[in-house]
Each structure stands twice: as C-alpha cells, then as structure tokens.
Write a structure and sequence with these properties.
This protein is α+β, with helices and mostly antiparallel strands. About 50% of the residues lie in helices and about 20% in strands. The chain has 2 domains: about 80 residues; about 55 residues, OB fold (Dihydrolipoamide Acetyltransferase, E2P) (Beta Barrel), CATH 2.40.50.140. The N and C termini lie far apart (about 85 Å).
Length: about 160
Amino acid sequence: MDIVIIIILIVAAIVLFLVEVFLIPGISLAGIAAVAALVYANYYAFAYMGSTAGFITLIVSVAACVGSVILFMRSKMLDKISLKQNIDSKVDKEVEQSIRVGEKGVTTTRLALIGYAEIGGKFVEVKSTDGFLDEKTPVVVSRIADGMILVEEDK
C-alpha cells in the first residue's frame, strides 16, 4: 500500500509539473502542488519505508521528472497544442496619417496623458504634452511621433 501511495504522488507530481512547464506560464498552483507532491512522496518513503526506499524514491522521482520533460518535448504533443496561425492584420492608421501638425481640435475625453480628441472631424487617440486636459478643451497638434499624435492646449 505504501508503494501505491508513493507511485500515485509521483505520477500526480509529474502531470502537474508538465502542466506548469508547458501550459501555465509562471509559478502557479500546479507548480506548487507538483513540488509538494514530490516532497511528500520522498518524505513518506524515508519516514515509513526506510532510508534505502527513500533514496530509491528520490532517484526515481528526479529521473521521472527529467525523463517526462524530455519525452514530452520530443513527442508530437507540443505540435498539437502549439499555435500555428500567423497574425497578419494591422491597425488602421489611415485616420492618423491624414492629420497634420498645426491642426486644431477639441478633446472628447479627459486626457490623462492619453485620450481621444476630435481633430478635423475625425475622432483619434492623442497624447497630451501639457499634462492632464479636461474634456472639451481646445487642442492643437504639436507633433506626430511613431504614429502617436501629440497635442497641447490651444491658447
């Protein structure tokens, strides 16, 4: 019965470890549970079955974790779950390209550095160079850099 408990803990740890490494990025509950299952399996073997069984369990659990990662990486399972589609769409920048430096407009939202303004009858995303601007504040386009329209208050 002790060997069955240890085997179940090691198998659960390997499954959770593979989920952690390949499916869930970062440190998550699966990784913590995998470490806890491995630690408890080894503790259980040392405490209830003796040091020889404990060392065998330790070697088997390390080999099983390393072997499962290698086998999983070599299998075609990664190809089945990987993303194969390329994203070829682009953001429509036609409106932003039609706006020129010096054009005047009015903010349609509060510019907490970035917001929306109506310039030349077109609603565009703008960035304030004067800090925070309230809604319905007259603005003028001061420059356009890297597709971002920079505005300042029209005084």
